[in-house]
Design goal:
Elements: E1 32-33, H1 47-55, H2 67-77, E2 84-87, H3 89-101, E3 107-112, H4 117-125, E4 128-133, H5 142-147, E5 153-159, H6 171-180, E6 186-190, H7 205-211, E7 215-220, E8 233-236, H8 239-248, H9 256-266, H10 269-293, E9 304-308, H11 313-323, E10 325-326, E11 328-330, E12 334-338, H12 342-358
Parallel strand pairs: 1-10, 3-4, 3-5, 5-6, 6-7
Antiparallel strand pairs: 2-8, 7-8, 9-12, 11-12
Helix pairs in contact: 1-9, 2-9, 3-4, 3-8, 10-12, 11-12
């Protein structure tokens, strides 16, 4: 038998494995998972019934064009069908975007730290990551990102709000940045947490896209809509980009159950607004409590908070787990903590109070 192995692409060497939020151990002492920015509420009214009905046709392939969902999105956002594309969560669509724009020799620019899938999907494509450090306040440094553009730049990610630091860029600074970006460079506004924004100065990416042909907006049903387990996201972009996304989509990638659940979720808008409002109120309570304890907490417009802990990060994450909550540590930097159930947030705040006293 030959001892040689199949030749694989060199670009795959050294790709970091995506680190999902740690789950609470089954049967263990941990009661709450605050590590993945999941919605603590169950699916919206009508969704479970829709999913159950759709499950009866599991022997059939889903609609590869997601036409029903596309039509619903077209009406909801007031955009042409030809400006829409779907995928397996917004991260799936993000990977399609890089496949459509960048390969070996090309560059993808994004802030760092930001969504940890960006370096992975960039390296898979064979393109080069250009990571631009955040400001000391953990915000995108848009001036530095504009300075980083070269003739090899093909795509720029702007994660707004930024994951994991929860910070945002506002309309005036985003417009200045976009004015500096060449028209042949695609700017992707990754708005996975858009529904949680309450700052009126943070622009809706869909309005930006209407004015700029080189802007694409990413959205997901995983967060506010509570469909993280079904993997359905979408992009809004002008014709050439949206068409490329549909070409690079995995055939039948979005299940029929996911499509039907997304449609039902869009139709439960009133309930969604109420739930998001409750989470935003809880977010305010958590942030106020942390600041009262003496923590420096960036203004958050997402469903999570960021604590910069440096070398204390691992110890803090361990303390949280010992008390019954799992958070998402970024070793040597800080922790991201989802705003979850009131009971979970209360446990988290007890840990922060005790840990603060020991610093």
């Amino acid at each position: 038998m030959s001892e040689t192995s199949p030749k694989l692409r060199a670009e795959l060497e050294g790709i970091p494995t995506y680190k999902a939020g740690k789950a609470a151990p089954v049967g263990g002492p941990v009661a709450y998972k605050l590590s993945s920015n999941e919605n603590p509420y169950p699916p919206l009214p009508g969704v479970m019934e829709t999913v159950t009905a759709a499950a009866s046709s599991l022997n059939r392939y889903p609609d590869p064009a997601c036409l029903g969902l596309m039509q619903e999105l077209s009406e909801r956002f007031g955009v042409p069908l030809s400006h829409l594309a779907t995928g397996t969560g917004s991260v799936g669509v993000a990977q399609q975007l890089i496949q459509s724009t960048a390969g070996p020799g090309d560059e993808v620019v994004y802030a760092w730290r930001s969504f940890e899938a960006y370096p992975i999907i960039t390296q898979i494509s064979g393109a080069t990551s250009v990571q631009v450090p955040l400001t000391p306040g953990d915000v995108h440094d848009l001036d530095a990102m504009a300075d980083a553009i070269t003739d090899r730049t093909r795509l720029i990610f702007v994660c707004n709000p930024n994951n994991p630091t929860s910070t945002v860029v506002r309309r005036a600074e985003l417009d200045r940045f976009l004015d500096r970006v060449p028209g042949d460079v695609l700017v992707v506004l990754d708005e996975a947490y858009r529904e949680f924004i309450r700052d009126p100065e943070v622009p809706d990416g869909v309005e930006i896209y209407r004015e700029r042909p080189n802007v694409c907006v990413l959205r997901t049903f995983s967060k506010a809509y509570g469909l993280a387990g079904l993997r359905v996201g979408f992009a809004i972009a002008h014709d050439p980009v949206a068409a490329a996304l549909r070409k690079t989509a995995v055939p039948f990638g979005v299940s029929q159950i996911a499509q039907e659940a997304a449609i039902a979720s869009l139709r439960a808008e009133d309930e969604l607004i109420g739930r998001v409002g409750s989470l935003v109120c809880e977010r305010t309570r958590v942030v106020d409590a942390l600041r009262a304890q003496g923590w420096t907490v960036p203004e958050t417009q997402a469903n999570f908070v960021w604590l910069r802990l440096g070398e204390q990060t691992a110890a803090f994450a361990a303390a949280c787990e010992q008390h019954g909550v799992v958070v998402r540590p970024f070793p040597g930097e800080g922790v991201r903590v989802t705003v979850g159930e009131t009971e979970a947030n209360d446990i988290f705040l007890k840990v922060t109070e005790g840990f603060r006293k020991e610093l």
